Amino acid sequence: MITSELRHSSDQLSVAGRALYDLGQVSLWERETATLPRPLARRRRRYRDFARQHLAPLVEAADVDPAGYDPGPLLTQAARAGLQSEMLPPPWGTMPMGSLRSRSLVHEVLKAEELSTVCAGLALSLLAHGLGTVPLVLSGDLGSMRRWLVPICRENKAGRPRLAAFAITEPAAGSDVEDSEGAATARYRTTARRVDGGYVLNGQKVFITGGAHADLVTVFATLQPDDGSPGRIDRDWTCFVVERGTPGFRSGRSEHKLGQRAADATELFLDDVFVPTENRVGAERSGWALNRNVLNYSRVPVGAIALGIARGATEAATDYCRRTHLGNKPLLAYQEVQLTLADLWLETMAMRAMVWQASRHVPPTQAVSSAVKTFCGDRAVSVSSRAIELLADDGAIATNGVEKRLRDARLNQIYEGTNQLNRLAIIEAQWETDFGAAG
Amino acid sequence: MITPLGGDLGLLLDTVDQFAGKAEHRLFAEESPDGDLDAIAALLLDAAEIGLLADVDEDVGHWGVWGAHVDDEGPALSLAVLRRLGRVCAGLAAAVHAQGLGVLLLGCTGLEHSLPPGTRVGAGFCPPYGLVLDPRATQDRIHLVDDRLDGTARFVLSAGTADAVALAVHAPGARGGAAEAVVILPAETPGLRVVPAGRRVGLRAVTMFDVAADGVRITQEGQSGGSSAADRLRTTVAADWLGQAAIALGCAEQAVSVARTYTESRVQGGVTISEHAAIRLLLSRAEHDAAVVASILDRHADTPLAHLDSNTLLRWAIDARVAVGEHASRAATNALQALGGYGYMDEYGLSKRLRDLTALRVLHGGPDQLLLARNDVGAAS
How far is B340 from chain A (nearest CA, A)? Predict the structure, then answer.
């Protein structure tokens, strides 16, 4: 609250002094948006409006009954709004032109935050498509881009959802993809065998986001070495596009999970699946590096998902404190409440500062993206927990909008490599430099 | 007075373990995030049968959780039972706990009632927001003026459908000058509305509701006021927080146990992940966290409640409940983390434990509210 005394005092400042002193009653969201280049500021506003209009009405149904929730209409609306074709610039897609010039991920993190502020599960159900296409871009394989990415973008841009998913995790191996030392013994069992005209894939993937609905999946499989020795993911991993409807390829069950429930986590089975050579993404045995780089690109938006969750919890807690009274005053008027709310807001601002800064690292590197993913995942859990505590008993009631945020946030400490593995990834990436281990 | 099992504590706890095993089988035979909630009613009948539920008839429920024995024997038995049940299902444990709170709030108030043995009683003492002990919340509480009851008591727990509610009410002008009274009402009383609390993050096996009174007439015989009501309210609130802490401890301990088993079978980097420093740190921290809560719960567990002054009791209870919010929740979340993606799926049961602990960390008060109350209670002399 700006007192009349402060206003009066500021009026006594010189013209220059007044110009340097901002007493405007402007929300933090507007202030931070104003620091963005105008096209990105417009886009942030568009993402926010889309989330409020199209995601908000679905939140409860998708969380309570994910199996009964039909994602089709939302996917169509997102495609029509240009959200599902931002991996290529016009005329093929809807990527902001400035992003290509600056090679920046800023629009991706803006989208992830705005959608996740309303619902991280619904946001993930949309963002997973982008992740599925990232190997196509990062392989640098123009053939793959022409064959897959351009039609995907064109279809989505026309409002006809055509979705991709990304598949690395297996029943006996997950975070191993970050474990360089343990790669030789990692228990990845999905294999590829070279045959005339292509490859035959066998194996199983689990927890694949979007796996229930994707039209195609970028699958990582160990290509059998020519000398007959056992394959290793760090030497033989290769990425393939597998289209739905390919004989031998099918989806299994979607898991029941704690949060982000609107986004399916689905089993995929590959039984003697033949894919032609042109379905290979990039060179044979380039999958280890390709996957690592996909995660470098995806972890910054994942940090932004956590940021959105924290912001959603903060805004819900603030709203509750505005409308709930203790004695004859709203909770907002009590000092202990203000202390906690200030913490929620400042933690969210710190997360955003880190996410925005990291999104300007192009290309993103392992240390920076792992740091963002880890920090924001941990802080989102902390912010959501404190929001629940602030609401006390009402924090446990679903309609108050904070307990779901904690359930959602908890996944950000696990997917895309556990936060333990991501911490070690920071050390690994900077081993020769900041940690001076080479010298 | 009935002393089930001859008062043999070890035998009683063996019986509790047998009941817990049976409950686990019935609740979790099929994969379901909260277990088979339809089985709760029958399990609570079994719990009453073996004497785990306190009762409005002191002789019937003497050795039950928060039964009359706590005045002479201390809360150790109640806490041990709740901790064991918390390992299986925190919601079921909370239901057993809830009946104890109802009986505790009624007990020793000199209140005449004609409730038959087996009556399920919900205890209502929470204002719409904040703690009943917070003077700032006084005007918001359900209140009794000129024998007329108005207002709302929130977050009432009961073991299944409540037959009656025991309400701690603000009663300016009540006998004894303490501005407190306890009233007991059948749940079907005209003018009394029982409103389900809504979809909750966890503890779904215990019934939770709000009670709204609109001009309900209370006879002089149906109310007990003065300092004994005020004392009983403080004892009930303290018992509530202690019981929650015991349930949370059991819940966290079981989460860590599940994680230990998993990490000894999951291989990464050529060895089981139980050998990875990251996992050892997670689980060791989790066990340390459980030990912290256990040690706080032990502090006065063997002291008869009648020998504890209410400030000491409240300080102990607040310490235990605040510790649960931090330590038990962290123990469970670290256990879940050790399972990676599998921990997040309902299949392993850790997601349910985390949800239950999330509910327990704010049940009948958030940590800042408790810490402010602790400050008001004062430091130990």
Answer: 6
Task: Find tokens 């918001």 and name the residue.
Answer: B140
pLDDT at B7 over 60: no
Give the model confidence (pLDDT) of B312-367 as tens digits: 999 999 999 999 999 999 999 999 999 999 999 998 899 999 999 999 999 999 99
CATH of domain B121-225: 2.40.110.10
Of B31, B333, B362, the CB nearest to A389: B362
Q: A88 and A149 in contact (C-beta within 8 Å)?
A: yes
A399–B368 CB contact, under 8 Å: no
Which residues of chain A make contact with B329, given a CB cutoff of 8 A? 385
User: How many whole angstroms separate alpha carbon B183 and alpha carbon B222?
Assistant: 6
A388 three-state secondary structure: helix
Average pLDDT, chain B: 92
Domain ranges in chain B are 4-106, 121-225, 229-377
> Which residues share a beta bridge with B144?
B149
Q: Is B180 helix (H, G, I), strand (E, B) or coil?
A: strand
Higher pLDDT, A183 or A404: A404
d(CA A12, CA A21): 12
What's the CA gap between A298 and A370, in Å, rounded?
Answer: 10
Contact A414 B345 (CB under 8 A): no
What are the φ/ψ torsions at residue A249 (nearest 5 degrees)? -105, 125
Count of Cβ atoms closer than 10 Å to residue B46 Cβ: 14
The residue extents of the domains of chain A are 29-163, 165-285, 289-429
The CATH superfamily label for domain B229-377 reads: Butyryl-CoA Dehydrogenase, subunit A, domain 3 (1.20.140.10)
Contact A270, A204 (CB under 8 A): yes
Identify the pLDDT of residue B381.
62
CATH architecture of A29-163: Orthogonal Bundle (1.10)
Q: CB contacts < 8 Å between A and B, how many?
A: 148
Tokens for A407?
């359930």
Amino acid at A219: V
Task: Give the total residue count for chain A.
Answer: 439
Asked if B337 and A396 come within 8 Å (Cβ–Cβ), the reply is no
Nearest to A258 among B337, B340, B354 (CB): B354
Contacts of B202 in chain A (CB under 8 A): 396
User: What is A289-429's CATH superfamily?
Assistant: Butyryl-CoA Dehydrogenase, subunit A, domain 3 (1.20.140.10)
Flag if B268 and A181 touch (Cβ within 8 Å): no
| Selected residue of B125, B344, B347, B357 to mutate for chain A interface (largest A Cβ count, 10 A) | B344
A165-285: CATH number = 2.40.110.10
B-chain residues within 8 Å CB-CB of A173? 268
Nearest chain A Cα distance for residue B40, angstroms: 21
> In this predicted model, what pLDDT tens digit does every residue of B151-188 receive, in sequence order?
999 999 999 999 999 999 999 876 666 788 999 999 99
- Alpha-carbon span B230 to B237, nearest angstrom: 11
- Taking the C-alpha atoms of residue B341 and residue B279, their distance in angstroms, rounded to an integer, is 14
Spatial separation of the C-alpha atoms in residues A187 and A172, rounded to whole Å: 6
Cβ neighbours around A154 below 10 Å, total:
16
How many whole angstroms from its chain centre is CA A47?
15
Taking only the tens place, the pLDDT of each residue in A157-174 is: 999 999 999 999 998 877
Chain-centre distance for alpha carbon A201 = 28
